[in-house]
Amino acid sequence: MKTSDLLVRGAFLCVGLFATAARAQVGYVPTFNADGTVTMKFQAPNATKVQVVPMLKPNGLYKTDIDMTKGADGVWTATFKPDRPGFHYYQINLDGLAVIDPGASLYWGLFKLQPGLDVPDPKLDFYTLKDVPHGTIRYQLYNSKVTGKTRRATVYTPPGYDKSTERYPVLYLQHGASEDETSWTTQGKVNFIMDNLLAEKKAVPMIVVMDYGYATPPGEPVVPTTPEGVRGSGGRGGRNPTSNGNPFELVIVNELIPTIDREFRTLADREHRAMAGLSMGGQESLQIVSTHMDLFASMGLFHPGGGGAFNVATSYGNVWANAEDVNKKMKLIFIASGTLDSLYNQNKGIHTAMDAAGIKNVWYETEEAHEWQPWRKDLHEMAPLLFVDKK
Amino acid sequence: MKTSDLLVRGAFLCVGLFATAARAQVGYVPTFNADGTVTMKFQAPNATKVQVVPMLKPNGLYKTDIDMTKGADGVWTATFKPDRPGFHYYQINLDGLAVIDPGASLYWGLFKLQPGLDVPDPKLDFYTLKDVPHGTIRYQLYNSKVTGKTRRATVYTPPGYDKSTERYPVLYLQHGASEDETSWTTQGKVNFIMDNLLAEKKAVPMIVVMDYGYATPPGEPVVPTTPEGVRGSGGRGGRNPTSNGNPFELVIVNELIPTIDREFRTLADREHRAMAGLSMGGQESLQIVSTHMDLFASMGLFHPGGGGAFNVATSYGNVWANAEDVNKKMKLIFIASGTLDSLYNQNKGIHTAMDAAGIKNVWYETEEAHEWQPWRKDLHEMAPLLFVDKK
Description:
2 copies of one chain form a homodimer.
Chain A: E1 6-11, E2 24-28, E3 31-32, E4 38-43, E5 50-54, E6 66-67, E7 69-70, E8 75-80, E9 86-94, E10 97-99, E11 106-109, E12 112-119, E13 136-144, E14 149-157, E15 170-174, H1 183-186, H2 190-199, E16 207-210, H3 247-263, E17 273-278, H4 280-291, E18 298-302, H5 323-329, E19 332-338, H6 344-357, E20 362-366, H7 372-382
């Protein structure tokens, strides 16, 4: 065992079955082995059953729960070959109850800090940190009258932005349900994906803006919430927007876009503004672009969820009904899903409906489920198609 | 109970004593009551003893461990009046073992995500979010040959930076042991403190750079560590620098300062560069400024720890031995400590030694212990004294 695999992080966590005076639990960082397996450990001498539980069975980290084996030292171990590379949420179940190992990496998802395992893909490095020029991640605070709060957006500016006087197109890029404005950087690796594409001159330099996908008017209950300061100043939770004129749409259209166009050197017209998102964020993108084609000429839907079946004739009024009109207005419609995603048929239905109606669109499918690895791929596939008149 | 106080965050955490099929624990966000008390709750029907344990007894959140009382519903409750306002690390002990409530706010400290409670001070608002122009927090990646890693610095740029062509002085500001380059924003509220001072024209607009206070050369074991992606790209852990030529000093002097002077519009001379820090970061500041007065003309030591007694004649060679020479070179020496801090005498010793030797310095003391509330106050007190020729 490498020294770095073993952490003693002081009195911490999740050792409820040891009703002893010991206050520290040894934490174990999962280790990736040369043969493609991963080894996870958990200290629980008094437990009867400990399992690694993938959050997206059968198509996430592993198809089933994985039984750990107890060692003489009270440390449970499991070595298994992940079913697929990429980022996976998981938990450890200790006698049937979810606990966290102190060595686990935690990511904001499922409205909490959730353990996640990012299994490297030996065949893919488009989302890894490389020795190329790096853009900057920055946090933009802005006042929101819609929510009565100061909100926080994450903004990626491309390498050279600060030295340049140029104006840039903007991609608004949204996370999925229960995640937040940091998810595209921590889980999604948006900055590495963009840095690497730009280093290879495969995409146009652009600003990427990632907002918090929930918004709640003052006085309405916000569940769940996390106090300001931990996760920035945006406040947590709020309504999942589904209908026109919802608070999140008003935040984006009336508050965030004007803020970004004021604070950054943007090309502030519809031809140089796109909106895309994954899952709930894909649905938000479809709803907001549908009702604001005056603001956006490009749209990306990555495994969009939550909006029901798409109908060219009736969805969002009649904005999609006239293919000729849509084809004139929209420069890019990018739709992606995964063959292992339960939303696959519904997602592909948007593409086939548009195709049948003669609306130009790009369909991209992966052999993936409803998680971050395909969303990284979706961004990597879509970004080179955006704002191509700027090339 | 307000709806927002009660969180059901799914199967999560720390409920090892309930060896049942139930997988979800109800999480409780601590609530501040009108009478100045705080109410904390923890669901644990099978526990024998549950306590709120302040991490800095007797001078932190509360002087002793606080027994929680079990309700008929299996939820334990404690209502108590915090001994003092400000940010405090704590934990919940369940039958003597440290656990986390799913409703807790977690902060990177003690080399892990640790529960923290920020008790408002009704008499102080200098560190709260106000409706004033906001600066920007951004993350600067940079290559480090010293560590063989890409490191990440947090950078605060003042309101108006992006619209201006002006050059700005720079304060390098370090966190304490076991924390990281995000601590001054999340625990310290550096951006709100600076925004508010600038709005009142009490300080000169400056860039504030916060780096990760550990650095380890390639090949040396790094304990503890957290995988890249969760906490940025800096890597975690490393040696606590104490001697000249240590890796952290080399990172700051040879790598970070040139990066910041290249990437930002800085006034890149010693008169417009300061270094300050708290606890371990204070000791780092003393060591680095002592050995690099060619780079820094201002220094802030907030409850500095780890360096032993300061001796004007012998510490850091003889750089402090000639008061006249030091007084010519150094524009500001700011030393702060708290009367409840165990380092108080040692910290005040630096001030009295300098005073006795005729070295000009500013001493600032608070009735506080070794935690964030005084460090916020220290920054608020020191910042107006920095770079005053720019006023």
